[in-house]
Amino acid sequence: MTSMKFVTTQQLTSADVSLERPERFTHDYLLRMTSDNTSDSWNISYARTSELAAAFQSLFAQKESDVQSLISVVRWQHRLIDYNSHYAAFLLEQISEDEFAQIAEDYAYEPNDASPKDLSQIISRIIDLTGISYTPSEMADCFRCNHDEVLEAFKLASANLPELKNMLPDGVE
Asked: What are the DSSP calls for 36-74, one per residue?
């Protein structure tokens, strides 16, 4: 007798369900039956469960990467807004120069080393997701890395996103 496991949609969204299949099942397929309601014929299509699961895992991994990229942009934007509000307070003489110098020091950072190849992929995806053309300076600040690394990343990414060439400073190609 064949053993079956039924899983509800609520169980699928909980972390406690394991859909791992024992190794003894060498024929594990997902079937789909369709009919056009005008004839008595049925179409049956199938896929290996492992291949389908791999496709979903890849999709989830890409979406998780997208979310992490957008989180980094939102955090950078929040940090930039905070800094600008302190700067505005300083200009309006609501805080002293010494207070602002201390605040500005808290926002200063030592640039991280970053791979231009990795940056180019992330920058391309962020621009694709947001539809906003960020400047190299903005992206360097966002990722807290060296401006030259971002320029190199823009050059690499411009092969896929030609509009990035317009964002490069004059003389950089």
From this structure: -SSSS--EEEEEEHHHHHHHHHHHHHHHHHHHHHHHHHH
Q: Which two tokens stand for residue 92?
A: 């309006």
The secondary structure of residue 164, as a DSSP letter, is G
Q: Write the Ramachandran bin of 37: left for phi over 0, alpha for psi from -120 to 50, otherwise beta.
A: left
Q: What is the largest CA-CA distance in the chain?
A: 83
Q: Is 43 exposed, middle or buried (0-12, 13-18, 19+ CB in 10 A)?
A: exposed
pTM value surpassing 0.70: no
Mean pLDDT of each 10-residue bin along the chain, 173 residues long: 52 53 68 82 84 89 94 95 96 95 93 92 92 90 93 87 73 61
CA–CA distance, 87 with 142 (Å, rounded to integer): 18
Residue carrying the six token digits 């080393």: 113
Q: Domain limits of the chain?
A: 16-52, 60-167
Helix ranges (DSSP H) in the chain = 9-12, 49-91, 97-107, 116-130, 136-143, 147-157
